[in-house]
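Researcher: Batch entry, complex prediction.
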Amino acid sequence: MDQVTLFQNLVTGVSLGSAYALIAIGYTMVYGILRLINFAHGDIFMMAGYFTIFAVSSFGMPWYITILFVTVVTVILGVTIEKVAYRPLRESPRMSIMISAIGVSYLLVNSATYLFTGLPRAFPQLGFLQKVYHIGDVSAPIVTFITPVVTIVILFVLLYLVNFTKIGMAMRAVSKDFEAARLMGIEINKIISITFVIGCSLAAISAILYFSPRPMVFPFSGFMPGLKCFVAAVLGGIGNIPGAVIGGFIIGLAETFLVGIFPQLTGYSDAFTFVLLIVMLLFRPTGLLGEKIAEKV
Amino acid sequence: MKKISLLLILALLLTTFLVGCGGGGEEGDADNVIKIGVFEPLTGENGGGGQQEVDGIMYANSVKPTVMIDGVEYKVELIVSDNQSDKTMAVTAANYLIDQGVVAVIGSYGSGVSIAAGEVFADANVPAVGASCTNPQVTSANEWYFRVCFLDPFQGTVMANYAVQNGAKTAAVITQLGDDYSTGLGNFFMDAFKKLTGDDNSIVVNQTFQQNQADFNAILQNVRTANPDVIFAPSSITTAPLIIKQARALGITAKIMGGDTWENITIVENAGADAEGIVLSTFFDAGLADSSQIAKDFVEGFSAAYYTPVPAVSALGYDAYMVLLDAIERAGATDGDSIKAALNETDDVEGVTGSVTFDALGDAQKNMAVIKTVENGEFVFLQAVTVE
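Model: Structure tokens for the complex:
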């Protein structure tokens, strides 16, 4: 692999990985609080893609208002889903709520097909994001270079939020012990809603960052990213925010370099992601940064 | 609360009964209806293209809503079944059509689903007429499957010819893993290209990708390193704009070429300025319609009823419907064997995309393809290629 290819793949991999990381954080936070794998998360991400399209092409919003608008609408969608599909099942077995999540996922995909047709839609150019930028022989849209920066900034903001604020303390308490937290006077529903607000706004931001250089949205757009980010979250240790980011980077880089180093294996890049998951589950089921939890008897 | 739900359930049950009876009554009245299945993807990866083909079939149905069988006029009822662009769902969708008692089937857009469902139709003795499924395997192992379009070996050769004529010495091929259309067409292109250039190493990159993949940067970086003269990437309309845009963003300037699926305005809308100069082969050009009255009428009628520009797959859907109805009329019966025998005898039936004569395998003898490019956001006719 020559130097240009190496750097080009590095840029692609890091950027892809950081977009994955943002989605993975959404999975990991919801899991941390609710012990729920939110299978609809990838599809919320897909809907955020559609919201962006409508914000720009139907309402002609400038890019900075678009980002704000999409975040707000996606958050409303996510919180509504939580209220309607997850909250009534809070006391039921964990399996029921998971099945409900799968149902929501199908509902979103099929509503998108019904409302926006199966035809792929072009993702709009947001401001300067898609302008191609060259560094030597390495060229990529500007958004590719911005994505990792955004991800790292968000990671630190979240770490601060979780570790040094009152809300964060409440979140940690809820994730440790639901019932005890409730007895201590923590408003569980509020904390869960806040978690969904954070998860969905990250899904909205990652949708904008992910779709800008891959400018097509169709109802299945959220399927593969959703699945891979779930893997990323598990890889890093589900429930652990820095772990999700690391998992995202690993998958983005591994996928890109597999194709770069073994061109004949391009068709297997997805398979490789899942092999990675299997190996991780076999040898370190708690993930890279996951803590060992003693089973309560 | 419980009482209300009980009442509701009762009411629902009653309505189901009533509706059921109503349906039954209608069927009893209308002896003169034959059902034709429309087996197409309306959702999933090929949902967009499938819808256009259905539109062509629906338009044909509005032009010719009845068929004369043995002196009696029958109304044609179309039953649409969505195969979801998925080979597993295709079998379910095909079985649904058989259960509905269709006498014949039209479709599908996408060769993979047609191959997957072919056996179901053959087992049920229901003949199927494909509109735009170009992979040879659709008809080669199945005497119940016919088709009105050209085949991938022909299409691959046409595109390789075009590339070589325009000075290409090396090519990169990018295809979708597990998609019979994409891999098939890619292979036929490679064979033809190697033969034409006389160089076994002229395919410098051969890469595959997965369904629903959105990031092609790693693959395209390999292409960029190899620096080919042309890129041949037969793929769905969902994938094509992504490959085109990401290739241009990486600074690849080679000519990008595709197959018949690419003649879809969605690609131009989605890829924008980057779509300029892409080259593709297709079945039909509205500009050539002047030479034939049928084509002219179709283009005018379809544009008025649906949309412009008229997609080639809509024209093929129309032709498939007309060829099938012609066969049913000649058969004078509605059983599978008679319709199949009549289809086999189809000889020179004039259609929008040219005349249709089925050979022993059930393929239309078509030897004309249209090569188009994109200029100023529109498909522009480049040349019509005829291979004897």
